[in-house]
Design goal:
The protein contains ten helices and eight strands. The chain is an alpha/beta fold.
Length: 291
Amino acid sequence: MVSGDERVKVVTTIFPIADITKQIGGDHVGVEALLPPGASPHTFEPTPGQVKKLVQAKLFVQVGAGLEFWVNKLLEAQASKPIEVVLAEGIDLIQDVGLEEHAEDQAGEGSVHPEREGGQIGNPHIWVDPVLVKTHIVPKITAGLIRAAPQYREDFESGMAKYITELEALDEEFREKLTRFRIKQFISVHAAWVYLAQRYGLKQVAAIEAFPGKEPSAQWMARVAAIARETGSKVIFAEPQLSTKAAQVIAEEIGGKVLILDYLGGPSFSDRNTYIKLMRYNLKTLEEGLQ
């Protein structure tokens, strides 16, 4: 057992990445996520105490692609910086394909994931695809841990191999269950699920909010309701981090219901307190809504 003082201090931006890092690093790492439970990474602003934790870390892991728009300026202001891993680098990011009508109807109101200063541009929710986690995110985090603490290379590589086996089992669960889905198209509050949809043959046909937390126009609300009728959708997938008000209005209009998908989870949720549990929770919710 490694003592707290000897553990590699790692800070991540969101809980799923923190848990993945813990699974790989084991007792050699002390990991903390900056984002508190219930907060959205799209609207989050770190406190001075959280900034202090970040600059004291040996390794900092962020998603990138504009998700943590507040990070770059925060790091630039620090004289001492941790080793940084940006997970979206090297991934062919989805440009919100299939949501073009949203941009047209919300013209002048911003895009689903607007351009940020520096880095790649595209949909940042790469961790909702278990295969991308296996092939890209886990190896990238492992490489960062080895840079931060090369003396533990063997243990980190062993942790990576074990966790990849768990991710392969998760991928098989998704493939086996999604083949039985009667409905393949869905609507959600924002475009958080396009990587999962692309991986498993689903299609997110509309997102209610152009940007998380931005209230949709009446024109777009009417269009989403029309899309729901056209596609036979009776379920609107909302998120615990965002208001369900617009989703409830549309669900009532189409005679449907609102179900909660969660792309962040957290240690306080017994059914979502690891990345694997979080994705199984989402699979169960998708089953309920699309079968």
